[in-house]
Automatic annotation (TrEMBL):
Leader sequence segment: 1-21
Biological source species: Candidatus Jettenia caeni
Official protein name in the record: DUF3828 domain-containing protein
Keywords: Signal
Length: 197
């Protein structure tokens, strides 16, 4: 009986470690970022903790904006997503919490839209390396949930911020009147989500 107990403990530890090694915090963050870049939100949700609301609100808002905006604006948003380059720069684990630091090179859309508001013009800049970019550090916090690493927080993610960016883009690309309609729809959508409707 004395020999069985240590073997059982070692076996439990080995299997626990194996489950984390299969889907490390770094791998989870990489898969999540790739899903968001590809507008694959159902996949992105699978990497998010059940305790989170901020990231879910942000993803739901992006989905909604894509649904209500004209193709010209959606195309610009897609181009901006496709141009993002992200790198994991550091991972640290403390018991059942992990911190994954990222460094992103993202399109500076404010600068880009000063140059051109035409999706074809943005595509040209993207293909020929002329798209203005900026660097942005980030950090994901992960927790162990049901035996897997899940993202519980992403520094910098805010549905309010996403709404502001979307309406700014709308104004630059579509004009003030159409941007006002989109802003009203977004505000109504966010009110409903906050009210749990």
């Amino acid at each position: 009986m004395r020999k069985i107990t240590p073997i059982l403990i070692i076996t439990i530890i080995a299997f626990s470690g194996f489950s984390y090694a299969q889907d490390s915090p770094k791998a989870v963050v990489e898969k999540y970022l790739e899903a968001v870049r590809n507008n694959n939100y159902d996949t992105a949700y699978s990497y998010i903790s059940k305790t989170d609301t901020t990231i879910i609100d942000w993803l739901e808002l992006i989905k909604y904006v894509r649904k209500i905006t004209p193709p010209k604006l959606t195309e610009v948003i897609d181009l901006a997503h496709s141009a993002v380059q992200q790198e994991i720069v550091d991972t640290s684990i403390r018991d059942t919490t992990a911190f994954v630091k990222t460094q992103s090179i993202i399109p500076d859309m404010e600068e880009t839209l000063r140059v051109t508001q035409d999706p074809e013009g943005i595509k040209f800049l993207l293909q020929h390396g002329g798209l203005p970019v900026k660097e942005k550090p980030g950090e994901c916090t992960l927790v162990v949930e049901d035996g897997s690493w899940k993202i519980s927080k992403v520094r910098g993610v805010s549905s309010d911020q996403a709404a502001e960016i979307a309406t700014d883009f709308a104004e630059l690309i579509l004009g003030k009147d159409e941007a006002k309609i989109i802003r009203e729809k977004i505000n109504e959508f966010m009110r409903k989500r906050e009210g749990g409707i």
